[in-house]
Amino acid sequence: MTQPSPEFWTEAAQKLQTTMAENWAKAMQPFQAGVQSAGASSFAAGAEKPPEVHIEPEKLQALQKEYLEQAMALWSKGAGHPTQSGDKRFANPAWDDNPLAAFAAAAYQVNSRALAGLADAVETDPKTRNRIRFAVEQWAAATAPSNFLAFNAEAQKKAIETQGESIAKGLQNLLHDMQQGHVSMTDESLFEVGKNVATTEGAVVFENELFQLIEYKPTTAKVFERPFLMVPPCINKYYILDLQPENSLVRYAVSQGHRTFMVSWRNPDASLSGKTWDNYIEDAVIKAIGVTCEVSNSPSINALGFCVGGTMLGTALAVLAARGEKPVASATFLTTFLDFSDTGIMDIFIDEASVRAREKEMGQGGLMKGKDLSSTFSFLRPNDLLWNYVVGNYLKGETPPPFDLLYWNSDSTNLPGPYYAWYLRNTYLENNLIKPGQATVCGEPLDLGLVDIPVYIYGSREDHIVPIGGAYASTQVLPGKKRFVMGASGHIAGVINPPAKNKRSHWIRADGKLPKTLDTWLQGAKEHPGSWWTDWSQWLQTHAGKEKLAPKTYGRGKYKPLQPAPGSYVKVRA
To answer: Are the C-beta atoms of residues 449 and 422 closer than 8 Å to each other?
Structure first.
């Protein structure tokens, strides 16, 4: 096969650049018109008026000048110019070996940088600016040349080397993912709940229409007298806390001598479509606390809440405090919002109009589909959680490697509409949980200031779902004795960090002070290598009471073993 001449590549590159320049000109129009259209589109229908959005003429001229200089410099070099960008999407040598692909990548990066510069130059309110930035990031992620077989030199090379087999496999992968309703992030066929994830030995000792309560088998001769209850997020399956033996927080807690219980949420169907936030607090979290006390014959327990599970635990504790009850001796909050002042990128999705629309759509009944929630979270990191797999699965015909965490991530759950609508308004939109008496749950006006118990608060430094500042804010809300720890990495990887792997770091202030801001706290914090689990375990032991002989059977009295762990609720797919 005769290789195309350099003149061919140069002509093709010029045509490509002309096309991209035309598209760029169209993209510039709303900015040149004061970005009014972008501002209006970022403001949901039903608001009083759109926000003021504009770019100073001097900034716009400077950005245009910079873009034209970079575009002309690229054009003058023509095709065959190596990318040398540091962008992992174009890191494979095949990109530099293919002149048209190399030029496409370089031109894309020039355009992306310019559009990002425009978004940063917009002068408007913070929420609108963040919405514009988010839209630009989504555009940049979606239009990368790596996403298209016509430009992806690496995928083209693989197709030639495999004599088209990679393309055929990619089509098979695409059809498979269309049938299952989501992009495969791992080889899901290699995992099964109860077989190689969620395998810690135990039994279901109680169930109602919202949850099953699992009691785990002790692995120590003695256990602490005060039992330990975990409340995971009902937006996901509980087994993020019990993936595999080597990274299971459940197994770790059991090994430390805690008589451990777990809330396993039911995956809602139409029969639960009318359930409310009150139902989940009264009939699930508070009920789980009560049953755990009865099964263990203990007047009080220690409890842990993860993410939304922590928000629900905090709400339940406030309800109980309003009733003069204190069955929880200490609480652990992992990457949890109680104060929703700093919600990070999630803030762009929430305003009065969008919440009102959700209330109208499902406030009186209906389901928030798990796959829709999962898609939203994926678009928060589009290159890592979406396009990376589109390219690998479909363009290269690859099967993603087995990864328990990503299997769990794909095992989404639904939410009852009324529950979801209440949650959006009272937390993300109005931040009512931190306003004494503003929200009423289970007939009780909430006041987190009454939740006067020791708490352990953990936040992940790179968390994009519960930003570290949002996690830290709980230290200023709860009145009891508090310990705050910051871990490295993100929302999940930061939490699921077993000590045996000796990975990542965590930060603690030796003086225990909790100033008003995270930045001030960090000034006195010291980095410690490895997992935060050991620090937490030592803290929890101080609130666990004396040791006693471990029970030899599950349940107690009317609470008898119903089925082996992990139970049936966790196996229901959305």
So the answer is: no
Which two three-digit tokens encode residue 377?
């979270």
Cα distance between residue 254 and residue 66, in whole Å: 60
The DSSP symbol for 345 reads G
CA dist 544 and 227 (Å) reads: 7
HSE (CB half, 13 Å, CA atoms) of 213?
Answer: 27
**Residue 382 to residue 141: CA distance in whole angstroms:** 6
End-to-end CA distance of the chain: 51
Q: What span, in angstroms and rounded, lies between the C-alpha atoms of 207 and 237?
A: 16
Tokens of 449: 């200031």
Is 442 a catalytic site residue? Answer: no
- Please name the amino acid found at residue 317: L
CA distance 170 to 294: 54
Break the chain down into helix, strand, coil percent, rounded to 5.
50, 15, 35
Listed residue (233, 248, 237, 236) closest to 200, CA to CA: 248
Query: What are the DSSP calls for 297-342, one per residue?
Result: T-S-EEEEEETHHHHHHHHHHHHHHHTT---EEEEEEES--SS-S-
Which two three-digit tokens encode residue 356?
Answer: 């009102």
- Count Cα neighbours of 91 within 13 Å in the Cβ-side half-sphere: 4
Beta strands 455-460 and 328-334, pairing class: parallel
99-121 vs 153-161: helix crossing angle, rounded to 10: 150
Q: To which H or E segment does residue 368 belong?
A: strand 367-368
- What was the pLDDT predicted at 357? 94
> Hunting for tokens 């678009």 — which residue is that?
379
Q: CA-CA distance, 182 to 390, in Å (whole number)?
A: 11
Rounded Cα gap, residues 161 and 265, in angstroms = 48
Identify the active-site residue in 234, 293, 307, 442.
Answer: 307
Cβ–Cβ under 8 Å, residues 423 and 307: no
Sheet-wide strand order for 301-306:
526-529, 505-508, 482-487, 455-460, 328-334, 301-306, 228-231, 260-265, 211-216, 202-207, 563-564
Question: How far is residue 409's CA from residue 464's CA, in Å, rounded to a whole number?
Answer: 15
Q: Give the mean pLDDT per block of 10 residues along the chain (574 residues).
A: 49 51 46 40 48 85 89 74 72 89 89 91 88 90 92 94 94 89 88 96 98 98 98 95 96 98 97 97 98 98 98 98 98 98 90 93 92 78 86 93 90 94 96 97 98 98 96 97 97 95 94 97 97 98 97 96 98 89
Rounded Cα distance between 556 and 297, Å, is 8
The pLDDT value given to residue 72: 86
